[in-house]
Design a protein that fits this description.
heterodimer; A: mainly alpha; MetI-like fold; 2 domains; about 0% strand; globular; B: mainly alpha; elongated
């Protein structure tokens, strides 16, 4: 217990030490304050944004864009994954195409998406969905194709229809895989939301960071980076909580 | 054989419809350029070498960032994996830095290094560092403790025990992290080029799209897909060759 406490105190001291070192170096101008504003100024900027409320509109825009893209990716991923995972024919038809598209960086389809949809929110959401679909898709293919064979036999014996089988047996049994994939997708969605904002000038935290850089307002830039880090952390925790809830029926580590 | 035919059928039908549609004028030519035009534009770009230069610029930056991240990640990961107490102290700071999207650091890198190779490679390195670092910590911690006891008994200096015992024992798992990082490096390099950095394939695509050359843009996109696919195949083949690297 004591050792545990000592190491967490150590962890806090280490993080604080780094910040203090940075503050001192920046104040003494060992490192250029243009590139590295002191942590104090970054925090003050963050505090100012929160106090004035200017932090919320871009944060909300980015979060919403990320959320829409993620939902679209998850829905499509589960549907296509279910088709591929439970039908040999669908797998034969779709797999080679998807294998070719999967390693494409999502940002690479940005130029094509801009041609089709213009600099719009719809474009941003589709690019996010394209990039974020893969973890969910692969996870749900795996989940749907590894349904317990005994369950399959029971269903066949009970003459359960295919639709019922998917809804009642296959989907719940694939759910843990799907949720794990969805968590990775969420992280990708945040990154792509920032990318689309930077490239397509959509309002949001990513766009603000780029604007701050162009006018050399580095405290604002750092404040934006911190905001994005916190968003990633919060999103990850939120989906972990949802995961816990949805998977309560699963016996925790045991027979 | 039947699987091959089925797998090829959707792309072939789509391309045929696309070609027929744009020849009949049903598809606007400024967004859907004809597949035949795309092939021609690609062949031209290869013939005058522009696409190869751009490809090299992208790969150069991805490799430089990856190499830095691999070296730093393996070294720090080995240190932290061997010293659990140190890891408990540094770990939370690492966990706080990790969720920062690497792309968010792009403006910062631009401010520090300006346009060019260094800036792109630094963003790639930041993105690649985490998978390598985390996997190395886990791999080093999973080393058979008796091997480490042996190094201690022989009073090996840290450098040689790292080289002779720790890395060989943990390598098969570290390779998994490196493989993830290679994929990340290409994606991040392309992204940086598309958003800010005026070099490489990503920039080429943006320029082609903005100068209303969709055929050239699609050709580059296709080439990029082939590159990514080839890289993926090569890596999974290498992983299969590597004894014990399957994870």
């Amino acid at each position: 217990m004591m050792r545990h406490l000592a190491s967490s105190v150590g962890a806090v001291l280490f993080a604080l030490g780094l910040l203090v070192l940075w503050q001192v170096l920046a104040e003494r101008q060992f490192i250029s304050p243009v590139f590295f504003p002191t942590p104090g100024r970054t925090l003050a900027e963050l505090y100012r944004q929160i106090a004035e409320g200017t932090i919320w509109p871009p944060l909300g825009a980015t979060a919403l864009r990320m959320f829409y893209g993620w939902v679209l990716a998850s829905l499509l991923g589960v549907v296509i994954g279910a088709a591929i995972g439970s039908s040999r024919t669908a797998r034969d038809f779709l797999e080679p195409l998807l294998e070719f598209m999967r390693p494409l960086p999502a940002s690479a389809i940005l130029p094509a998406a801009i041609l089709f949809l213009g600099l719009s929110n719809r474009m941003a959401v589709s690019v996010i969905a394209f990039g974020a679909i893969w973890p969910v898709l692969l996870a749900s293919v795996h989940g749907f194709s590894s349904v317990e064979p005994q369950l399959l036999e029971v269903c066949r014996a009970l003459r359960v229809t295919r639709g019922q089988f998917i809804a009642k047996v296959a989907f719940p049994s694939a759910l843990p895989d799907i949720l794990a994939g969805a968590r990775v997708s969420l992280a990708i969605s945040l990154i792509l939301a920032v990318v689309t904002e930077m490239q397509a000038s959509q309002p949001g935290v990513g766009h603000n960071i780029l604007l701050a850089q162009r006018s050399f307002r580095s405290p604002e830039l750092y404040a934006g980076v911190v905001t994005l880090g916190v968003m990633g952390l919060v999103a990850n925790h939120a989906i972990l909580k949802v995961e816990e809830r949805l998977l309560r029926w699963r016996a925790p580590d045991g027979p | 054989m039947r699987r091959r035919i089925r797998g090829a059928s959707i792309p072939i039908v789509l391309v045929a419809l696309w070609e027929a549609g744009s020849r009949a004028g049903a598809l606007p030519n400024d967004t859907f350029s004809r597949p035949s035009d795309i092939v021609v534009a690609g062949a031209r770009a290869f013939a005058d070498g522009t696409i190869l230069v751009a490809t090299w610029q992208t790969i150069e930056a991805a490799l430089a960032g990856f190499a830095f991240a691999a070296a730093a990640g393996v070294l720090c990961g080995a240190l932290l994996g061997l010293a659990p107490r140190l890891e408990r102290i540094v770990g939370p700071t690492v966990d706080a830095l990790r969720p920062i999207p690497s792309i968010a650091l792009m403006p910062l890198a631009l401010l520090m290094f300006g346009f060019g190779l260094t800036m792109e490679a630094s963003v790639v390195a930041f993105a690649c560092l985490w998978p390598v670092l985390l996997v190395t910590i886990a791999a080093v911690r999973g080393i058979e403790p008796r091997l480490l006891d042996l190094a201690r008994t022989l009073e090996m200096p840290f450098g040689s025990s790292l080289r002779k015992i720790i890395l060989p024992a943990a390598l098969s798992r570290i390779v998994v992290g490196l493989r993830v990082a290679v994929g990340v490096s290409l994606v991040v390099a392309i992204t940086v080029e598309i958003v800010v950095n005026p070099r490489g394939l990503g920039y080429g695509m943006i320029i082609a799209s903005q100068s209303l050359r969709p055929d050239l843009m699609y050709a580059q996109l296709l080439w990029l897909g082939l590159l990514g696919w080839g890289l993926n195949e090569a890596l999974s083949r290498a992983a299969r060759r590597w004894p014990g690297a399957q994870a």
